[in-house]
Specification:
The protein is an alpha/beta fold. A 9-stranded mixed β-sheet has the order 21-20-19-22-23-31-30-29-26. It is extended.
Length: 837
């Protein structure tokens, strides 16, 4: 949270005398004064009798000592003290609530023309940034109020709030640069308010904001949004809360009031790999508005994937002619659906010569289309002329192991070897080779692309082979799938988890295990009924876990999966690991912790590791046999990407997935070698990132201090479309290449028009006013109801007591008690000396 200028205009201190909490009114004095008077009269009468035979001064001394002690007790009861108070003037506050969901990145070039492509027309977010930067709107508000600017999309971003204090009336302020008088920095509103949210939860954000602001002098809330409420609670609760808190809401609507006429390829599904002569399917998903029933032509082109950044510097996602797109493979006539309906278009293609190909699907643009830039999409496919080599390792022949072994053995593009630790010599297995020991040499491990380990006894493999496995993953780009089980993974004392020689294996796991010395802590958690998997947002967006062609189709399939019965408890994910799904049984959660991790993954050097909490994916066969096959086929190819897509013997370029949501942070890793094929030692290497519009940026991949030759970096995907990643290998002319697809979620794409009815309802029902467009809202003159003038001054003065120092109160009380005790002791001593009873 950023604060500029103080929140409180002024504060003054004052001191006043007061009694303790027992004295609240004049009547509260009567009883203690009367009681004290009666006691003092009794003391006087007592000493007139006791001191009758003494000299008069002694009687007066004893009477004074007892009287002073009782007066001290009265003083303790009354608790007189000086109260220090702070008089504060709390400035009136105006809160600007700015929508930063992805739909705010759209540009409205006219009343019926909407585009998210780069162009001359500013986006909705850019209009807000320009108004906050170039107009007197903020200045007008700050003449009366402190101004807080808050973002919202899928949640309210309190930590990114910016608070601008009320402008002083006697000091000139230069808001265009840093002023020597006020030291006020310039704020880059365009950067701060850049759209990244995948949902618009307007009602939820308003309700949370109003709850947070109760009791503060808020003059009003100004909502800057297109009103695209598509998730979370309805705004009705926020309206009722605002009325109770007497906080008016003023809405400013951005965007076009009409849905643009448009057809777009919302998604393109292309397999990452195919084999020569293999049939594969390319699926394009068409989404349109205002073109229901329109007949369009959809074409698919193929060309050799280009490796040169320069040759693509002027290429955008829109392909101008067939020669740019490549060779025309197929063409189809497609009838578009209704508003927002998604129409799949499938092309059955045959792979040709080995190598990387770029497939381009293009719609022949109809005349009514207002945004031709989203009519084409590209994706790469690797034609691989070799089999995928997989090693299955298991302590015993579990169901998961048997189903996967049979599947891979039947796959003509896969070679599978098995190591069954509990097996006997001469046993029969559906595999190319049956190993009796884990590979012991670097060359033997080089033969494999992926190792799938089903609850193995790692201690039996041995420390030397465990270190070989770790180096194979880290340095040779190997893929490792770790499936937890109820035998070796859950042993307490004596298991491999407590074996110091297995540190190399434990490092590979993307999860932290529970306590090592207590067997009960590592026992498997099992239930009598299945519990579905609870996917995280990252898991839902990871295409290698999809059981359908799109995220929506995959979510529908996973929702029909009954679930699993067990999960190995772990402490949690390791730093840097991604959690894709959790075991949903609430009874499995440890106290104060989240649900147990079920799916997790991490990059490890140039390789990739995936973890499963139990071996129960064979239960997917209840939905259809193809789902189990699809799950493991995609997963094995994903973790093996470091080897299957290895473009050079000098290195490998890795990304977390092939599809990302617009605004996501893309993490990139590389493992590089020098000319002697030893790990490359440099401080950093430069990655070239070519965006969908042809623009290029350089991203520095910094050396990973934990592993020589490993480099990592990240960038934010700010444009929808295809990104090309190129990494020139130092000391050579070779380049490593990857392509990723950036998409806008359907929630932010389906309805992009300005929702005036909702914004008007929120404003009018809370005592505010609705404005259409930023020009009407920021105008300070020439309009009948300027927005800045609608917010009343709610500056208030409050008296805040300063808490007295408890240490000083203790000292005063201690000395009072010591004094009273001293008086009583002195009285007792004098009475003893004078031989009074």
């Amino acid at each position: 949270m950023t604060h500029i200028l103080p929140l409180w205009a002024e504060a003054a201190l004052r001191t006043r005398f007061e009694w303790g909490p027992h004295i609240q009114s004049n009547s509260d004095w009567i009883l203690p004064i009367a009681a004290t008077a009666v006691v003092l009269l009794f003391v006087r009468a007592m000493y007139r009798r006791d001191a009758a035979e003494l000299r008069r001064p002694w009687g007066l001394v004893l009477t004074a000592l007892r009287t002073t002690a009782f007066l001290g007790l009265l003083l303790l009861y009354l608790q007189p003290h000086w109260r220090i108070e702070r008089e504060e003037v709390r400035n009136s506050r105006a809160v600007l609530l700015v929508d930063t969901s992805l739909s705010m990145g759209l540009s409205d070039t006219d009343g019926d023309k909407t585009s998210n492509a780069a162009g001359d027309a500013p986006s909705r977010a850019q209009q807000i940034a320009a108004a906050l930067t170039d107009t007197d709107f903020l200045t007008s508000l700050r003449k009366t109020h402190d101004v807080t600017v808050l973002e919202f999309s899928d949640d309210l971003k309190r930590e990114q709030a910016v608070t601008l204090g009320k402008l002083p009336t006697d000091v000139p302020v230069d808001l265009s640069s840093e002023s020597p008088a006020t030291k006020e920095p310039v704020i880059d509103w365009a950067k701060l308010l850049h759209p990244t949210g995948t949902e618009t939860r307007l009602g939820q954000a308003l309700r949370q904001l109003i709850q947070d602001e109760r009791g503060t002098p808020v003059s009003g809330i100004i909502v800057l949004s297109d009103g695209g409420q598509n998730a979370g609670i309805a705004p009705d609760g926020a309206i009722e809360a605002a009325r109770e808190a007497k906080i008016p809401i003023f809405s400013v609507g951005l965007g076009s009031a009409r849905q643009p006429t448009n057809v777009a390829i919302s998604d393109l599904a292309v397999p990452a790999r195919a084999y020569p002569g293999d049939h594969y399917t390319v699926t394009a998903y068409l989404q349109s508005q205002g073109l229901a029933g329109k007949l369009v032509t959809v074409q698919v082109f193929s060309r050799a994937a280009t490796n040169s950044t320069a040759s693509r510097s002027n290429r955008t996602r829109k392909v101008s002619n067939s020669s740019d797109a490549g060779e025309l493979l197929q063409s189809q006539q497609v009838t578009l659906g209704g508003e927002g309906d998604v129409v799949p278009v499938k092309f059955d293609l045959v792979s040709n010569a080995p190598g990387r190909r770029t497939l381009c699907v293009r719609i022949q643009t109809p005349a009514q289309d207002r945004n031709p830039a989203d009519n084409s999409r590209e994706a790469d496919i690797e034609i691989v002329d070799r089999k995928n080599r997989v090693l299955l390792v298991a302590d015993g022949p579990t169901r998961e192991y048997q189903f996967l072994r049979n599947q891979l053995f039947r796959d003509r593009y896969t070679t599978v070897d098995v190591l069954l630790q509990s097996g006997r010599p001469g046993m029969s297995q559906e595999a190319k080779s049956i190993l009796d020991r884990f590979p012991a040499t670097r060359q033997a491990m080089w033969d494999y692309d992926c190792v799938v380990a089903f609850d193995p006894n790692w201690s039996e493999i041995g420390a030397a082979r465990a270190q070989l496995l770790e180096k194979w993953v880290a340095e040779q780009g190997g893929g490792l799938i770790l499936v937890a089980g109820p035998v070796n993974g859950c042993k307490g004392v004596g298991g491999w988890l407590n074996d110091p020689s297995m540190n190399a294996v434990r490092n590979l796991y993307p999860v932290e295990f529970a306590g090592r010395l207590v067997a009960a802590e590592t026992s498997v958690y099992a239930t009598q009924e299945p519990w579905p998997l609870e996917f995280t947002r990252e898991g839902s967006q990871s295409d290698f876990l999809w059981l359908g062609d799109t995220a929506v189709a995959s979510t529908e399939v996973w929702s029909r999966f009954p679930g699993v019965f067990s999960c190995q408890p772990v402490r949690g994910p390791k730093p840097g690991a991604a959690v894709y799904a959790r075991f949903s049984d609430p009874r499995a959660a440890q106290t104060g912790l989240q649900q147990p991790v079920y799916f997790a993954g991490q990059f490890y050097g140039s390789g990739s590791v995936f973890y499963m909490g139990s071996g129960e994916m064979w239960r997917l066969r209840s939905l259809g046999e193809n789902y189990f096959e699809q799950f493991y086929t995609k997963l094995i190819r994903h973790v093996s990407q470091g080897r299957l897509l290895r473009g050079s013997s000098r290195g490998v370029l890795l990304v977390g997935q092939d599809h990302y949501v617009l605004g996501s942070t893309v993490e990139v890793r590389a493992q590089l070698s020098n000319l002697r094929l030893e790990p490359l030692e440099r401080r950093s290497v430069n990655l070239q990132v070519v965006g969908p519009d042809g623009s290029a940026q350089t991203v520095a991949l910094a050396a990973d201090a934990s592993r020589t030759g490993s480099y990592r970096g990240q960038f934010t995907a700010q444009l929808e479309g295809t990104y090309r990643l190129e990494l020139p290998i130092p000391e050579s002319d070779e380049r490593l290449n990857r392509r990723i697809q950036i998409e806008i979620p359907n929630l932010e794409r389906t309805n992009t028009r300005r929702n005036d009815p909702l914004l008007t309802q929120i404003a009018t029902m809370t005592g505010g006013r609705h404005y259409t467009g930023m020009p009407a809202a920021v105008a300070t003159s020439g309009v009948s109801h300027p927005l800045a003038a609608q917010l009343p001054d709610r500056t208030s003065t409050v008296i805040l007591p300063i808490t007295p120092n408890p240490h000083s109160d203790e000292i005063w009380l201690r000395w009072m008690m010591i004094g009273i005790c001293g008086l009583l002791c002195s009285e007792w001593l004098i009475r003893r000396l004078l031989k009074l009873a």
